[in-house]
Amino acid sequence: MTSDIIVKAVPCLQDNYAWLLHESHSGQTAVIDPGQAEPILAALHSQGWTLSHIINTHHHGDHVGGNLALLAATNAQLYASAYDLQHQRIPGSDSGRAHPLHDGQPLLLGTQPLTTIAVPGHTLGHIALYHAPQDTEPGLLFSGDTLFSLGCGRLFEGTAPQLWQSLKRLRALPANTLMYAGHEYTLKNSSFVRYLGLNSPELEEYLTKCQQKRSKNHPTLPNLMAIEQNLNPFLRADCPKVAAAVMNHRDVEPGLANQALSPQEIFGYLRRLRDNF
Ligand SMILES: [Fe+2]
Questions:
Q1: For a disulfide at 160, which of 24, 117, 143, 268, Cβ 3.0-4.6 Å?
Q2: What is the pTM of this model?
């Protein structure tokens, strides 16, 4: 959280998080990825906040399921990628209150700009929302199902090179950015990192903290991008250690040995190894 934007997790469905963002000067409040309406309305009520923005990172049901009920219960405006709105796959796209977001476009929450970053791969219309660090306050990244702690989204619509490009854009964000993802997958993803043999004291230290949080039923998120940049193998497909780990698991991909693979090819194999894990 920054002094200008307060962020609150709202657990939804099985393991989703919707994120409430409250801008303290204007009193405006956004929800990112409401998988359900009821828990959002309950959280708004308990905080005394009024919903002004509904933002979807992508069209999957567990990220948009609350749209219609929230549009009915509030005067909020709806924001989603131009691609997803054009394809009419966002509930409420025909409400007259839907606004398209394009890559690089700033969206104002009160006085605070959130920048749209197009991150195709998990789906073709996927976007992330970013608020840059200010003075000593960390930045905020809402990554949906593109970047998870220690993992990334599955390839439902895009290609591995597309998702690798998208992740490289997120990787380039400042290290003091807090990453808020769409799911609580951190501990599950850590098993895959260990399976790859990419253990390190830093990973163990991070996981100890995450396990403590989960034992109290707290989210492991947000996480600092500095930690993801160091520990998330999906952000490091161009790192020789990660490439070597993929090659060591080539039993699932016979014929990989002796080939010089590009980072995007390494990334593709890494994603496939995770799919079969
Ligand atoms: Fe998704």
A1: 268
A2: 0.96
